[in-house]
Amino acid sequence: MDSVLTNRGSAKFATYPADVLPAWVAEMDFPLAEPVKAALRAAVDNDDMGYLGARHDGLLDAFAGFAERRFGWTVDPAHVVPVTDVMVGAEELLLVLTEPGDGVVINPPVYPPYFADIAHARRRVVEVPLLADGALDVPGIDAAFAAGARALLLCNPHNPTGRVVPQSELEAVAKVAAAHDAWVLVDEIHGPLAFGGAGFVPYLTVPGARGFALTAASKAFNLAGLKLGLIVGEEVERLPSELHWRTGYLGAVAAEAGFAEGDAWLDETLAVLVSNHALLASRLPPEIVAVPAQASFLAWLDCRAAGLGDDPSAAFLERGRVALSRGLDFGAEGAGFARLNVGTTPELVEEAVRRLEAALTR
Questions:
Q1: 29-77 pLDDT, tens per residue?
Q2: How far apart are CA 349 and CA 356, in angstroms?
Q3: CB 248 within 8 A of CB 84
Q4: Which sign does the torsion angle of CA 225, 227, 228, 231 carry?
Q5: Do 200 and 55 share a structural domain?
Q6: What is the CATH number of the domain that holds 157?
Q7: 287 vs 9: CA distance, rounded Å
Q8: Are the CB atoms for 154 and 165 separated by under 8 Å?
């Protein structure tokens, strides 16, 4: 691996020994967008390391412009609130929209913090798994609402499958939520990484949608360590007014630069990701199948035919020295699966495949 990567101290490269190829956590290996670097350098040179102030119009205007350009979504900056990150935002919303013990629907296999953070908010996880084809089980969601669940925490684009929820399903979700006076909270953090033909639809643009979007620049511009998320919705006045104090100021600086000036970098990155997903699918051995992704840099690998048991990531790590995310962490539906990160160079994607193959032959 490139010494620039191996010298990084973030979780992706610091967790495993040097002989392990890290292809697990959701960090990309690409250099940051130049406008983001310039904004961060300027803040450092100006010794500007304080809190995010109550006036952060530049950030909100930059996001609104980005949403309009990329998604055709008209966002009123007055309806956007900065928060520490997307999952903190989800917890804050659950605290003001639901009561302790209320059910919150999720759709496993799904991003592991959903399970822990709903419980941390003293709400109850209600699992309505995805259908076999990856689609939402809308009748199952309807039944969960009818049984008393008060909210749905929806991941779109979906992590780990990479599926973009089509507008027809979003409309159906909005309809059943309205019928039960339930809230829909949509984690759209991977939305900017939807591929051109996928047709990502922000939930709040759907007719009759009642709820909130949760998003960030962190996945699109590789800024997870700078800690800044955004809550979007017409009823953000329900939230505590001091949430901006808990955000990362440099996260706001970087996000504003990415949203305002990062389109060219993002387009180039998307082209690499599309190519890497295709490369991965073409190189995998027949015992491993990549679920076709419509967004992001995460590949959901079906390894059930490989005979590696419920946790194939353990065999890949031990026998192939490649670290993937454990499928079971995404819920029981992740048995026999693993998640691989293709947000890297084509050469490292090919090296990951070689190590997967080595694990199968040892």
A1: 999 999 999 999 999 999 999 999 888 999 999 999 999 999 999 999 9
A2: 11
A3: yes
A4: positive
A5: yes
A6: 3.40.640.10
A7: 34
A8: yes
Do 56 and 249 form a contact (C-beta atoms < 8 A)? Answer: no
Domain boundary among 210, 235, 261: 261
Residue 320 structural domain: 3-30+264-361
CB atoms within 10 A of CB 132: 7
The H-or-E segment that residue 339 falls in is strand 337-341
Residue 80 tokens read as 């956007």
* Token representation of residue 208: 């009759």
In 10 A of CB 27, how many CB atoms?
A: 21
- Name the strand (E) or helix (H) holding 106: strand 103-106
- Asked if 230 contacts 210 with a C-beta cutoff of 8 angstroms, the reply is no
- Residue 302 pairs in a beta bridge with 289, 337
Q: What is the pTM of this model?
A: 0.96
Answer yes or no: is pLDDT of 97 > 90: yes
Structure tokens at 276: 């890497």
3-class secondary-structure state, position 2: coil
- Map tokens 């504003």 to a residue: 256
Nearest to 46 by CA among 283, 309, 253: 253
Report cis status (omega within 30 of 0) of the bond before 35. no
Q: Give me the chain's average pLDDT, please.
A: 97
Residue in the block written with tokens 């969960």: 144
Closest CA to 294 of 279, 280, 273, 263: 273
- Distance, CA of 95 to CA of 114 (rounded, Å): 15
Both 350 and 330 in one domain: the answer is yes
Indicate the number of domains in the chain. 2
Residues 21, 355: contact at Cβ < 8 Å?
Answer: yes
Q: What are phi and psi of 68, to 5 degrees?
A: -70, -45
